[in-house]
Design goal:
Layout (H helix, E strand, L loop, with lengths): L4 E7 L6 H12 L6 E7 L6 H7 L3 E4 L5 H11 L4 E5 L3 E2 L2 H12 L3 E10 L6 H17 L6 E5 H7 L10 H15 L3 E12 L3 H4 L2 H13 L20
Parallel strand pairs: 1-2, 1-4, 2-3, 6-8
Antiparallel strand pairs: 4-7, 5-8, 6-7
Length: about 240
């Protein structure tokens, strides 16, 4: 049977979150008629990420360059689906959201998009909730997909060149812009799904203090060129020692 969609999961030292992500994902995929595949891209992990992927029987590849955009692009290179879904390893895809993304792409009127997010953690620091609310407002207002969940037509991905490998963070913003422009030329919408939201971990707001997060985000805003250097994007690649 033809594979209609490919779900690509970039994973760097994700042994803690990956099992639950794959459990939820496999159950969701069982509820839709279209046939799909899961691709985990081990992005130079030093833990049991690859072993977990093997145990779940998903497609596994290795990307040695520790950069999120490189991992996502590597997954696309082996993907068989005409629809692409990019899912973070700490993000839980519900059956309803998966069906909506596939329905949008199948409609012939949509080039792709994103979804509003909700925190997977039950107890939230007030600052954390404000960050989530602010991002959702920006996402809807400006048509930008959060990196934890992006869906698109394979054709759109190929024609726009995929995720920029010149940056170590924020590649989803550039991709949203170029995909939206590509879709507009073809009369296709870029859609942010409003319901249901995708549940994703906001663990960075647990790993760093409010002051640290404001300082890091402010630095990137003032010096956007800094995203070209991994040293200035450490928040995206930091993993605490258990």
């Amino acid at each position: 049977m033809m594979i209609f969609y490919s779900i690509i999961i970039p994973a760097y030292n994700e042994e803690k979150w990956l099992p639950k992500t794959l459990d939820v994902l496999k159950k969701s995929m069982e509820t839709v008629e279209a046939k799909g595949e899961i691709i985990v891209v081990d992005n130079n992990s030093t833990d049991n990420t690859s072993q977990i992927a093997k145990e779940y029987g998903v497609r596994l590849i290795y990307e040695p360059i520790n950069r999120i955009s490189s991992a996502r692009n590597a997954g696309v290179k082996i993907a068989k689906g005409q629809f692409l879904i990019f899912l973070d390893a700490d993000t839980f895809l519900s059956p309803d959201l998966l069906q909506k993304a596939i329905s949008n792409l199948s409609s012939g009127k949509c080039c792709g998009g994103g979804v509003v997010i909700a925190a997977a953690e039950k107890a939230l620091h007030p600052f954390a909730q404000k960050v989530v609310d602010l991002w959702n407002w920006i996402s809807i207002k400006f048509g930008l997909a959060a990196g934890c969940f992006i869906y698109c037509l394979r054709k759109g991905f190929d024609d726009t060149g995929g995720f920029s490998e010149l940056v170590y963070a924020g590649e989803e913003i550039f991709f949203s812009y170029f995909l939206k422009a590509w879709g507009k030329k073809k009369g296709l919408d870029f859609r942010i799904i409003l319901s249901p939201p995708v549940l994703t971990s906001i663990r960075k707001l647990e790993w760093f203090t409010v002051y640290q997060m404001i300082l890091r985000i402010s630095f990137i805003v003032v010096f956007p060129y800094a995203i070209r250097f991994r040293i200035f994007c450490s928040s995206w690649y930091y993993r605490p020692k258990e």
